[in-house]
Amino acid sequence: MVTVDRRTLLKAGVTATAAGALGMTTTGTAGAAVPEPAIHPTSDWGARPAAGTIVVENHKPTYIVVHHAVDPPMNDDFSLARAYYVSRYIQNLHMDKNGWIDSGQQFTNSRGGFITEGRHRSLEILRGGTQHVQGANVGNHNSEVIGIENEGLYSTVDVPPALWNSLVSLVAYIASQYGIAPEFIKGHRDFNSTECPGQVLYNRLPELRTAVGRVLGVPVARAEAQWPLLKPGDTGRQVQLAQQFLRASGFGVPTDGVFGQSTKDAVAALSVQAGLPRHTCTATKVTDETGFLGADIWPLIVPADRSAAAWRADLARA
């Protein structure tokens, strides 16, 4: 039986009673251990030294977060050498362009199914099962998450079978080490207004939770509804509701249910006003994500007369 600490459950709005129904307890650590998959440490792929101190959070992560990475452009090289190249490429991008001290993600998963350590010390600390290395992959939530970059852009194409299988193995191992229930496997867009991890891969997250639950030997409860991601060009009731909320917040947008330029400009302005971090997933290289309306924007505009969970559920039905 996998167990989850009470802090994690309460933070996610899961009561002790609900935890029992999920086959979890609120104290202790994971029961049956999941074997560690082959994970190649930073020393294997020639990582640069970190440019600053690696921060180790003195608690377990609450969420496991799935990303995709458009850079370097994906191809059909499924070798270990390619996986090492991808890891070096991402580290260089994160350090030289984003100005981070190291790779932003804790782990990287290649299209050939090879797993590498991303940020230094991530593997060492994961093996301990009580702390986690703070990354830089989810804006305003890096103390809560452990992130996995998956090589490739998965907005319109599916992941290769090898990548999928290694993702299941890695996520199951992380969940086992930290006592994280499958319901807490998320996509980057569940926290920030970004396409990441791509619509195709994001749509497979329920399948990932089920597969991980099977490895862990626990039932998987239905995950809570998430904030929808709206993008310029979208139409429909969700867009119309967002426009109504934006108007109530002082933005002069139409309420025609069409996510046009004025709505995009309003969302972008609100993001700046709120001081939200600009999302740095490399998918922005092929898609301008400025003005996307997602998980960090909705809480700023929905009326305060209802809980976030209630609004998410209603928007999912809209």
From TrEMBL:
It comes from the Bacteria. Residues 1-32 form the signal peptide. Residues 236-277 form the Peptidoglycan binding-like domain. Keywords: Signal. SUPFAM superfamilies: N-acetylmuramoyl-L-alanine amidase-like, PGBD-like. Residues 58-199 form the N-acetylmuramoyl-L-alanine amidase domain. Gene3D superfamilies: Peptidoglycan recognition protein-like (3.40.80.10), PGBD-like superfamily/PGBD (1.10.101.10). This is N-acetylmuramoyl-L-alanine amidase. It comes from Amycolatopsis plumensis.
